[in-house]
Amino acid sequence: MSTRTTGTYETTIVAGESVNAFLPAPLPPSDPPLSLAGPLGEAVHQAERALAKLDVAGALVPSLDGFLYAFVRKEAVLSSQIEGTQASLVDLLSFEATTDEAPSDDVEEVCNYVEALTWARAQLADPAAPPLSMRLLNGAHARLMAGVRGADKHPGEVRRSQNWIGGPRPSLAAHVPPPPNRLPELLGTFERSVHDDMGLPAIVRAGLLHVQFESLHPYLDGNGRVGRLLIALFLEHERVLTQPLLYLSVYFMRHRQEYYRRLNLVRLDGDWEGWLAYFLDGVTTTAEEAVATARDLSTTVAEDRARLLAAEDVSVAAVRLFELLPKHPVVTVSTVVRLLGVAKPTAGRAVDALVDAGVLVETTGKKRDRWFAYERYLERLRVDTDLGVRRERQT
Ligand SMILES: Nc1ncnc2c1ncn2[C@@H]1O[C@H](COP(=O)(O)OP(=O)(O)OP(=O)(O)O)[C@@H](O)[C@H]1O
Ligand SMILES: [Mg+2]
């Protein structure tokens, strides 16, 4: 482990206490510079190979759209769970399948994450929109914090007050980020480092930028979620992946204590190498798991399609509905009416046919307002997201 200075401290008063706020030094790490020799260099190559495989797997998935759709939602559920939000993947998909119900606060928060990510990706793809910048991240933050819970968190705005992380009082905090009056300058430097190649591989820079962003903690809340979005956006921006298929929340969630410990050790000991070893392991593991998920989901869809087509009297509507399921794994008859543009009886028969074929499963046990889920597909997707709890829907 190296020991280097990673920034300076400035005394500041917050909540009546005098504390030392941390001002991180600009990236890249220096004194000594980052060394990617030895095992760490091998970890970089391993991560890059895993990402290249993931990119190929993405290109081979038959319905990439549906797959991406599901992946983004899985990430939204997980990234929001780190914050403590309890919505499950099925809660989110069920909510999205209907339009006549107000979301619970938890579901709203997850929907906001989907919205923030989708919006930011569209901005990145639009040559007329601002590049990957604080302006873009502020826009994502505004969407993330929209609605009930985020209203007092200054959506879309860099904080104007001193904050602290971990601990009931500033003097007991794990980390005191920079005072607000230093943020414009520090964030300007941060923004420039996003576009500086630093002579380092993109995947390494993604790891450095995430920590730097968390150290700066620019917002009153949502810094973890925006910092995780930043990783996905940066990889797409750097064209490491042609599709946004890598989301690290599962890994951060599984190794949460280690995640916080590694963030702290960067600041305290300048242990960027230790952080990168953790981060790169996360990238490799997550990319390999995503390849396996992509393969399993494709197999599931292919098998079910074959079974459906082999069934007697299969209708065109049923086949059309089946092809829409990867993007709409939870439906009601009304959703099907809307999706297929058919009358209710036709929609009902298409749903029945998919139930008979063992594709859709009725999940409510009710006679009316029934929900149908593409269970086999969801089961695979749900790994790690639900913590095994499926709560009763409130209707
Ligand atoms: N000791 C630390 N040093 C630097 N950053 C930290 C430290 N502990 C936690 N963090 C970062 O702060 C984030 C939490 O900040 P904040 O509550 O603003 O974000 P969030 O998106 O609301 O929450 P969460 O990340 O828990 O979902 C963590 O996800 C982590 O990235
Ligand atoms: Mg928070």
Order of strands in the sheet with most strands: 3-5-4
What would the average pLDDT be, to the nearest integer? 90
Q: What is the overall silhouette?
A: globular
Assign the CATH architecture of the largest domain: Orthogonal Bundle
Specify the CATH homologous superfamily of the largest domain: Fido-like domain
Strand proportion, as a percent range, falls in 5-15%
Number of domains: 2
Ligand kinds: adenosine-5'-triphosphate, magnesium ion
The span between the termini is 55 Å
The first-level CATH class name of the largest domain = Mainly Alpha
Order of helices and strands: EEHHHHHHHHHHHHEHHEEH
How many strands, which pairing sense, and closed or not: the largest β-sheet? Answer: 3 strands, antiparallel
Structural class call reads mainly alpha
**CATH level 3 topology of the largest domain:** Fic-like fold
Work out the helicity level.
Answer: 55-70%
User: What is the radius of gyration?
Assistant: 23 Å
